[in-house]
Specification:
It is a single chain. By secondary structure, the chain is mainly α. The chain has four helices and no strands. The protein has a domain of 78 residues. Helix 2 runs antiparallel to helix 3. The chain is flat. The N and C termini lie far apart (67 Å).
Length: 118
């Protein structure tokens, strides 16, 4: 009768290690990271729009797609900025509550100030 502690762990291939690392890194990256990576690709793909100006409909369609993409990038950047501000405010509030918002800490601080201890 073998217990599970005596059984060896399954062997993982290099591809499995890379895949698990990619999944772990993917969970930590915000959307703006991928949008920033895609900006040069979109601009390179859109470069052909300005070479052939024969068809105005094609140019208008391409430019509208480009502006939609840039709008998505701007909205993503705005949402990231708002989340950073929100996290900053939460951190400031919790640090205030842990220090000056604590009644015991304030009482000790006042007593040290009145007694002249440094």
């Amino acid at each position: 009768m073998k217990t599970q502690a005596n059984e060896p762990r399954p062997i993982r291939t290099l591809r499995q290690h890379f895949w698990n690392g990619f999944k772990k890194a993917h969970r930590q990256r915000p959307l703006s990271f991928y949008l920033l990576l895609s900006i040069p690709v979109v601009l390179l793909l859109a470069a052909h729009l300005f070479r052939s100006l024969d068809d105005p409909r094609r140019l208008a369609f391409g430019l509208s797609l480009l502006f939609v993409f840039l709008g998505v990038v701007l909205i993503g950047a705005l949402l990231d900025t708002l989340s950073i501000i929100r996290e900053s405010l939460v951190t400031k509030r919790t640090s205030y509550k842990e220090t000056l918002g604590d009644d015991e800490f304030l009482a000790e601080l006042r007593s040290n100030r009145l007694s002249g201890d440094d």
